[in-house]
Amino acid sequence: MKIGIAADHGGFELKEALLLKLRESGHNLEDFGAYELDRQDDYPDFIVPLAKALQQKKIDRAIAVCGSGVGASVVANKVNGVRAALITEHFSAHQGVEDDDVNMICLGGRITGMVAAQELVETFIQAKFSGAERHVRRLEKLSQLEKDQL
Asked: Which of 31, 69, 103, 145 is deepest in the core (most CB within 10 A)?
């Protein structure tokens, strides 16, 4: 599985720490920036390329970090095919993938501690979509909504 990660200044420190831990765990990662701390940067500049890579299937899952995680989730969900969720606890980290086929986890660099973030990301990465008929049916409705927006 190839995993992409991106953050603005609000999530930069957490992204860098997650990169280190994920690489140590042997994950295949692509860093979409920010590559240095710039307190004037804007989250769409990093989250949109991450989301587009997910849309184009250049990566399989994504991790987006901004100050609260809210902005990252809002902008990511503007890209068709991306199902991003702001995750703050363990149940949603796996249930979002199992039921809703979430493909991007969003975290708040100013609200999520490193140990918690690492556990949430590992749970998200390990989770598998159930493929249950009711979940597939719901995802088809989302796909139709995206097509209608074109």
From this structure: 69
The three-class DSSP label of residue 56 is coil
Structure tokens at 38: 């710039």
**Contact 43/75 with Cβ under 8 angstroms?**
yes
Strand partners, 7: 65
| Rounded-to-integer distance, Cα 22 and Cα 3, Å | 10
Model-level pTM? Answer: 0.96
CATH code (residue 131): 3.40.1400.10
Domains: count for the chain: 1
Question: CA-to-CA distance for 14 and 109, rounded, in angstroms?
Answer: 6
Region of 42 (left: φ > 0; alpha: ψ -120 to 50; beta: rest) is beta
Output b/e per residue, 99-110; b: 16+ Cβ within 10 A: bbbbbbbbbbbe
Distance CA 74, CA 90 (A): 21
Q: Which residue range forms the structural domain that includes residue 99?
A: 2-149
Query: Reduced to 3 states, what is the DSSP secondary structure of residue 23?
Result: helix
| Beta-ladder partners of 108 | 66
Query: Which two tokens mark 144?
Result: 């139709």
